UniProtKB/TrEMBL annotation:
Transport is among the record's keywords: yes
Pfam families registered for this protein in UniProt: Tom37
Recorded GO CC terms: SAM complex
Organism: Aceria tosichella (wheat curl mite)
Underlying gene: MTX2
Domain of life: Eukaryota
Residues forming coiled coils: none
Transmembrane segments: none
Name the record gives this protein: Metaxin-2
Subcellular location: Mitochondrion outer membrane
Domain Mitochondrial outer membrane transport complex Sam37/metaxin N-terminal: 83-197
Keyword Repeat (UniProt): no
Keyword vocabulary terms for this entry: Membrane, Mitochondrion, Mitochondrion outer membrane, Protein transport, Transport
GO biological process: mitochondrion organization; protein transport
Length: 287
C-alpha cells in the first residue's frame, strides 16, 4: 500500500504516513483516490480549517432553478437538484425553487440545477459550484479525502443514471425522449435529441457490454458505498452531515422515488445501509 500511495500524490513526512494509514483503514479509499487522481490529474493535500461547515449559521436566500419535475426533469438532473437542495438546507439557506423549462440553457456549463444567490447575477451550475460557494462563505477548506469521496460518488452515480436514461433503449424511448424534447418545437427538438443521444452514447455506451454488465458494476459501486456508510448515522461525521451525505441522499433517493427501473430500485434496497441512510436524511431534511 505504501508503494502505491507514493505514486498517487507527491506527499512528504507525516502526510505520507497519514495517507498510508488511511489507505489501510478504508478498503475503497485506494480506488477512490486513484479515480480522483486520474480524472483530475492533480491532487493537493489540504487540511480542514478550524472553522467547520457545521458552524455555519442561517444564510441568505437563494433561488434554485430546475426544469419541470413532472414533465421535463431527467433522473440525473433530478438527483443533482435534490443533492444541492439538501446541501443548502443542511447549511440553513432559504431556498426558493423555480421550475423553468429553459433552465438547461441558463447553465453556463450544462450542469443543473442553476442556483443564484440574493444580490448576485452570477449563476452557480451543478453541485460542485454550489459546494465551492458555501465553502467560501464559511471559510471552509475541504480535505483531500472529502474531495476524493465527493468526486467518486458523484461520478459513479451520474454515470449510472445517464447510462440508464440514454443507453438503455426501453427507457430512452419511453422516458428520456419525451422529457428531453418537452416544450421544444420540431425540428429543433429532433436535432437536439439526436445530438445529445449520440454524445452520451459515445462516452458511456462503451463502458458496459450490456445492461447486465452495467447492473453488475453498479452493484459493486453500491457495495463500496455501503461499507463507507457503515453503522454511523451520517457518512462522514456523526454530528453534522456533510456534502458527501447530500450527494448520496440526492442520487439514491432519486432512484428510489422515480422507480425508473425495478432493478435499480432493488439494488438500492438490497444495500440496507444505503436505504436506511436515505430515510435518516429524509427525516432531518425533508424534501
Amino acid at each position: 500500500v505504501r508503494g502505491k500511495a507514493e505514486h498517487i500524490v507527491p506527499v512528504f513526512g507525516y502526510q505520507l504516513l497519514l495517507l498510508t494509514k488511511l489507505l489501510s483503514s478504508h478498503p475503497p479509499l485506494f480506488i477512490i483516490i486513484t479515480h480522483y487522481y486520474h480524472t483530475r490529474r492533480q491532487v493537493m493535500i489540504m487540511e480542514y480549517s478550524n472553522y467547520g461547515m457545521a458552524q455555519l449559521r442561517s444564510s441568505g436566500p437563494v433561488v434554485l432553478y430546475r426544469p419541470n419535475p413532472s414533465k421535463q426533469l431527467l433522473l440525473y438532473d433530478m438527483a443533482t437538484s435534490s443533492s444541492v437542495l439538501t446541501f443548502l438546507k443542511m447549511h440553513r439557506y432559504t431556498v426558493n425553487i423555480k421550475n423553468q423549462t429553459n433552465t438547461e440553457f441558463m447553465s453556463e456549463n450544462g450542469r443543473l440545477p442553476v442556483v443564484i444567490a440574493e444580490g448576485s447575477d452570477k449563476p452557480m451550475c451543478g453541485f460542485k459550484e454550489v459546494f465551492r460557494y458555501v465553502s467560501r462563505a464559511c471559510n471552509y477548506v475541504p480535505s483531500l479525502l472529502e474531495l476524493a469521496y465527493m468526486d467518486w460518488i458523484e461520478t459513479k452515480f451520474l454515470e449510472a443514471e445517464m447510462y440508464v436514461c440514454w443507453c438503455y433503449e426501453p427507457i430512452l424511448n419511453d422516458y428520456t425522449k419525451n422529457r428531453y424534447t418537452f416544450d421544444l418545437p420540431w425540428p429543433i427538438s429532433s436535432f437536439l435529441y439526436r445530438r445529445k443521444r449520440q454524445e452520451i452514447q459515445m462516452s458511456l455506451g462503451k463502458r458496459f457490454n450490456d445492461f447486465t454488465d452495467f447492473l453488475e458494476k453498479f452493484n459493486k459501486f453500491l457495495d463500496q458505498l455501503n461499507k463507507l456508510i457503515g453503522n454511523r448515522p451520517f457518512c462522514s461525521n456523526e454530528l453534522s452531515p456533510s456534502a458527501i451525505n447530500a450527494l448520496i441522499y440526492g442520487h439514491a433517493n432519486a432512484i428510489l422515488s422515480t422507480s425508473i427501473h425495478p432493478k435499480l430500485v432493488e439494488a438500492i434496497k438490497w444495500h440496507k445501509r444505503i436505504e436506511n441512510f436515505v430515510q435518516r436524511i429524509e427525516v432531518h431534511y425533508p424534501s
